[in-house]
Write a structure and sequence with these properties.
Distance between the termini: 31 Å
Order of helices and strands: HHHHH
Number of domains: 1
């Protein structure tokens, strides 16, 4: 049912990579918006503009791209063969993907805090959090491509 031909596998892999790229673009940009939003006065035109930008970025790009990345990635996993499940790199990679999904959830929660003018965190916090998806992404890509162990 889920088995792919060699050419279909490549198409699913391409769609997975495209989805991951869109997801990461949003995951890297949203915390940067939070940096600027945290400095805007609540209720100001600037703050209200950030709310619209953040909501649209999350709902129109980040969430759909994450769903597509997980679906296409899962489809690829089902077609890697049984022997790959004993390889450590895959377990570490999937752990990092789960952590990335957790970061996605935190970014979503923080957007709701900004939407309700409840943000209590300074811009410096979001500057630091902006690096987390980058570090996770680097680890995931190295594990998927190099398979170091």
């Amino acid at each position: 049912m889920f088995e792919l031909s060699a050419s279909a596998f490549l198409w699913v892999k391409a769609l997975h990579i495209i989805s991951v790229m869109a997801w990461m673009a949003g995951m890297l940009y949203l915390p940067r918006l939070y940096v600027y939003h945290s400095d805007a006065e609540a209720g100001s035109i600037q703050s209200e503009t950030f709310k619209v930008m953040e909501r649209r970025l999350l709902r129109a790009i980040i969430n759909p791209a994450m769903i597509a990345a997980v679906l296409f990635g899962g489809w690829l996993l089902l077609n890697l063969g049984d022997n790959v499940w004993s390889e450590s790199w895959l377990h570490v990679k999937l752990t990092l993907v789960i952590l990335m999904l957790g970061v996605h959830g935190m970014l979503s929660k923080w957007r709701k805090d900004f939407e309700a003018d409840r943000n209590q965190r300074p811009a410096k916090f979001y500057r630091m959090m902006n690096e987390v998806p980058t570090v996770l992404m680097i680890g995931i890509v190295i594990l998927a491509v190099v398979r170091p162990f």
